């Protein structure tokens, strides 16, 4: 089918639209990523999918399209922890850099990719820059105990353009969900554990279904302000997935929100100073984030052991 036919299939409204197969979704997303769609067609796609919603097969197909357009890097046998960071923080400090550096301290290789479409938010890359970790200029595989972070536009220009369409259209599109669960190293054959977050409980089930379809590895949680890090005030539900199957589950903390001494309205430099105090032991690491670190370490060990046995 051509672009117009695909738009007819997905653009018939919530009840009349038809779901695409995984192969069809990959073809459609490929055209969008390669800049082969007219701007009006990009807008039609964004609005149609916003109304229809994505199926697990469609999301897996979108991932296929993006993964095939990633650079071919020499594979690594050591699994990499992938942290997609696409929201930043508006009220509380952004603590994704803390999570990344705690994982590095545990000896894990960490790849953080991201950007934000809202200029009013403090982002993880900004804070990491203040902490002495400059952004990479190209995708590469981190070594054990190393953090690599880069802007989405360094991953793929077409993907960044699709994310930026939100500023013109005013609506999220499938790319915003795609990037939060995307492993840029899949095309290289490097195993990775993606720490994927969601903002609404129903998205937990849809993303679990997507990872099942893609046979991928992930830790899913309801992140803080849309970031892949646990809320420091309360432990969220977490679900560990390996090869598309749930292998661990952690129930959310109930009851009142814990009182945590976290200043609000910080700029990037103050946010970085706060994280450095936690890394230095001058402030306690929030219990929920410490628990998340151990959950990731446990899944990483399981994934590494499976690779060694293969």
Protein model, in words:
With 310 residues, the protein is α/β, with parallel strands linked by helices. It folds into two domains: 3-68, Transferase, Pyrimidine Nucleoside Phosphorylase, Chain C (Transferase, Pyrimidine Nucleoside Phosphorylase, Chain A, domain 3, Up-down Bundle), CATH 1.20.970.10; 80-308, Nucleoside phosphorylase/phosphoribosyltransferase catalytic domain (Pyrimidine Nucleoside Phosphorylase, Chain A, domain 2, 3-Layer(aba) Sandwich). 45% of the residues lie in helices and 13% in strands. The chain is built from 13 helices and seven strands. It has helices at 3-10, 13-16, 22-33, 39-52, 56-67, 96-105, 124-130, 152-155, 157-169, 174-178, 201-214, 268-279, 287-309, and strands at residues 80-85, 110-114, 147-151, 192-198, 218-222, 238-242, 245-250. It has a seven-stranded mixed sheet, with helices on both faces. β6 (238-242) and β7 (245-250) form a beta hairpin. α1 (3-10) packs parallel to α4, α5 (56-67) crosses α11 (201-214) and α6 (96-105) runs parallel beside α12. The longest helix is centred in the C-terminal third of the chain and has 23 residues, at 287-309. It is globular. The protein starts with a helix and ends with a helix. Keywords: DNA-binding, Glycosyltransferase, Transferase. Residues 5-68 form the Glycosyl transferase family 3 N-terminal domain. It comes from Comamonas kerstersii. This is DNA-binding protein YbiB. GO terms for molecular function: anthranilate phosphoribosyltransferase activity; DNA binding.
